[in-house]
Amino acid sequence: MKWEVVIGLETHVQLRTQSKIFSSSATRYGALPNTQANEVDMALPGSLPVLNREAVAHAIRFGLAIGGTIAPRSIFARKNYFYPDLPKNYQISQYEIPVVLGGSLNCFVGDEPHAFAVTRAHLEEDAGKSIHENFVGSDGKPCSGIDLNRAGTPLLEIVSEPDMRSAAQAVAYAKAMHALVTWLGVCDGNMQEGSFRIDANVSVRPFGQKEFGTRTETKNVNSFKFLERTILFEVQRQIELIEDGGTVVQETRLYDADRDETRSMRSKEDAHDYRYFPDPDLPPLVIAPEWIEAVRSTMPELPEQMRQRFVDALGLVPVDAAQICQAPELAQYFEVVANALPAGQGKLAANWMMGEVSAALNRDDIALNDSPITPEQLTKLLARIVDGTISNKIAREIFGQMWRSDQKDPDHIIESKGLKQISDSGAIAAMVDEVLASQPAIVQEYRAGKQKAFNSLVGQVMKLAKGKANPGQVNEILKEKLGA
Amino acid sequence: MSKFLREFPTIRAFRDALSQRKFSVQEATSALLQEAQAQSALNAFVDINAELSLAQATQADANLAQGHEGVLLGTPIAHKDIFVTEGWRTTAGSKMLADYVSPFNATVVNALNDAGTISLGKVSCDEFAMGSGNEHAHTGPVRNPWDHEVVPGGSSGGSAAVIAGGLALGATGTDTGGSVRQPAALCGVCGIKPTYGVASRFGMIAYASSLDQAGVLATNADDLALLLDAISGFDAHDATSIETCQGVVNAPGRILTDYNKYLANASAGKPLAGLRIGVPKEYFGEGLNSDVGAAVEAAIAQFEALGATRVDISLPNTAYAIPAYYVIAPAEASSNLARFDGVRYGHRTKQYTDLQDLTARSRSEAFGDEVRKRIMIGTYVLSHGYYDAYYLQAQRVRRLIADGFQAAFAHQCDVIMGPVNPTVAPAIGSVAQNATAEWLGDIYTLSVNLAGLPAMSIPCGFAPGHRAQPLPVGLQLIGNYFDEGRLLAIAQTYQQVTDWHQRRPGDAA
């Protein structure tokens, strides 16, 4: 039987605010346990929550970016359950009426553009953390502890429609979502620190069947790779289960990275009755049109708009534009370079950004903002390719030197190392003659119809020219001399 | 009763005496702390810290010497044990918090500290403010100063008892379903709860958040005005506190300004001329003790004599206030009290097998019967499949009740009057045998909380108790939103021509 995979994602995005969603405590990551928890976060008797408007502004920003509806009036509810890292023993979350309704996220799956529908996005508070390892109690004995620094950190939970049909689509959605929230500045995007966590709802059904199969929800996946592994594992597990005559149980699962598998956490039967009801401590969140407009006026150009502009004005193909627009700093860097080069060289700039620049950053594990080569310096280098002073290959060598040394002027390197491209056709013709004379065997092969032999001859000429010969001219003259 | 309060029984009189250096705040505070010990049989105080009270007194004396003018400077008060206080334990009447000391003060407590009042300590209340007789406190029942065999009312029973017993000039209270007005009535003192959102709930241990509101108790309306004005005002720590109401800013000074304006505008002969008093027939139906009803009717007649007009009105949904309240309040309580889990503070059981067991045992051991009952009801009505039938339905009833009041205020009357409680104070222990009666007794007070309106209770006579002994009867005055100043002025006008509020236990009735 052929199976269809159905995936919906719930993304928990920690919002970048100075203080918590309902208290004035700081949200900085990594502080000593319980040093960022006040009476509200500890749920001391008499404490009350007060909504942080910056968290709301972030939600509005996100809602506008995905073309969703900002609810003029949304409600905070209490989700009641007992757990030690949840100090009030209820979580304040939006339930029936969320702050953002609808919208869609555009992204590329491979070369193919997709728009995935977003059901809703709601504001809620994060819980604290239980510490089970290396913790000693006041009596000196090992025990579990609770750190409430994270309790009350603002979260935006973004729920997608169950529209994804493969792990690749889900990963593309998640990456685009991650790119968008960091682009907007509503999230720092740090997945190791838990700023961006994904719950994957996965089910399978026979192709053609309308009804959804029973789904499982795998919680708190914190990398794109694990998301892919989770979905692949879950799909495989469910299909095998059904084909062996079993049934999928609706349950919550956990991904275990060490064993590359998902494991059951709790089944539907153990599910809590959360006894949701509107939080009487918080009046409805009313968002006036003026507030929305004020937020809109501070919105950066969205990746989608920028993508389109790069296609229209700089001649990029949509897939490249999408790659460039993954992060604002990348797009900004690119734009400086592309605009400074002669018209029509957008693709050259894009290729370099996605090629040399990205590779060097990855290799040395540094952020683009800390790049040792500025956009202006890169522009100067690429301009030498455009004007024919150097070849792309020589440019890569020079780039490497600029990256590693304090010498950031490509012209100086070209000059001092004599890397200027040989474009004198007489000189190139002489070198071609020399190669043809010294490599009769290869010439023979070429004449026998081996096209590869031609490339080999080009390589020999370039070697002789120490890479400096204009490759176009070498091709041309070689062809001519071979009588091709 | 301490001689200071016998001689200077109101805040203004006491303050004038302080200005005239008849005694120091220190002297009065010491005497009142001694008096609290002398009347320990009342079981009203649950925590006294003489050192702290005297330190506040010393500061007040210094401020007086420097010519500080605050009208509340040096006023001895007591705080309901539901307001968190630095220095004094805050137990909310529960074994759960028997040793709990808050690291911060309630906003109301801070406001009164800033006004220069002296806190004599914390006074008893029903556990987590759930109850109408102050019998549900882990420290045992509070006695009514009029008769130690009867309850003082609740849940602010300790607050009412210390005023009636002459142990303090003012007290804070909270009113979720009548918890300021009813004990005030049963103890023959005055109490007011303002419009929901006028006083901050920050630092008030929550029972039912959408109904809880701070209030004050004192011997007379004029003192209430001073105290209530001091605790009113927007608080950024409470998202339900009001910033403005129809353009009027919620800040200290508002209530006193209104109060003084209404008093100043009253004509001499018929000071209440033009005032329309709505008298809801549902407040005088079956269940109202006839002697209590007679005292209330007599008081309304007195208001008519002062120039007011009586208008018979109907608030047809009054009876539904009881079921609506006893769905909404327990629902909120079940969630509000979830934080008491034995993990971070409060009572923790000695033996447990796992986390769930720790929480279950700690709660079972530390919560009293009434609290457990309401948590169970609240948990039930919020459960999946019952929410719509109970909680949502109760919220609809709540809306209808509020609409009923608005219709009356829009077309028929300026103020509503009626009884506070169907009976005078019952004997201690008698209510426990009939828990439903305790709930039904709240019929005249609950609607006000459901609607969020301001309301008060003032003494208006006496009626025979269970041994035919005379016990105080309270008159309830209900106003429209933000009308606290007017309510207080009306009550003050009444008290200028009557002396029920001046009667004290032990006086010839």
Q: How would you characterize the largest beta sheet of chain B?
A: 11 strands, mixed
Helical amount among residues of chain B, as a percent range?
25-40%
Evaluate the radius of gyration of chain B.
Answer: 21 Å
**How would you name the CATH homologous superfamily of one domain in chain B?**
Amidase signature (AS) domain
Integer-rounded radius of gyration of chain A: 29 Å
Query: Helices and strands of chain A: which structural class?
Result: alpha+beta
Shape of chain A: elongated
The count of β-strands of chain B is 13
Largest beta sheet of chain B: what is the strand line-up? 1-3-2-4-6-5-12-13-11-9-10
* Low-confidence parts of chain A: none
- Average pLDDT reading of chain B: 96
The share of residues in helices of chain A is 25-40%
Question: In percent terms, what proportion of residues of chain B is strand?
Answer: 5-15%
* Strand segment tally of chain A: 17
Mean pLDDT over the full residue set of chain A: 93
* The CATH C-level class name of one domain in chain B: Alpha Beta
Strand content of chain A: 15-25%
Oligomer: heterodimer
What is the CA–CA distance across the termini of chain A? 56 Å
Query: Which structural class is indicated by helix and strand composition of chain B?
Result: alpha/beta
Structure, explained:
The complex is a heterodimer of chains A (about 475) and B (about 500). Chain A has three domains: about 5-295, no CATH class; about 305-415, no CATH class; about 425-480, Arc Repressor Mutant, subunit A, CATH 1.10.10.410. Chain A is about 40% helix and about 20% strand. Chain A is built from 15 helices and 17 strands. In chain A, strands 1, 2, 6, 7, 8, 11, 12, 13, 14 and 15 form a ten-stranded mixed sheet that branches. The two termini of chain A are about 55 Å apart. With about 500 residues, chain B is of the alpha/beta class. Helix content of chain B is about 40%, strand content about 15%. Chain B has helices at about 5, 10-20, 25-40, 50-65, 105-115, 155-165, 180-185, 220-230, 255-265, 290-305, 320-335, 355-365, 370-380, 390-410, 435-440, 445-450, 485-495, and strands at about 45, 75-80, 120-125, 170-175, 190-195, 215-220, 245, 250, 275-280, 310-315, 415-420, 455-465, 470-480. In chain B, helix 8 (about 220-230) packs antiparallel against helix 9, helix 11 crosses helix 13 (about 370-380) and helix 14 (about 390-410) packs across helix 16 (about 445-450). The radius of gyration of chain B is 21 Å and the shape is globular. Chains A and B meet through loops of A and helix 11 and helix 12 of B.
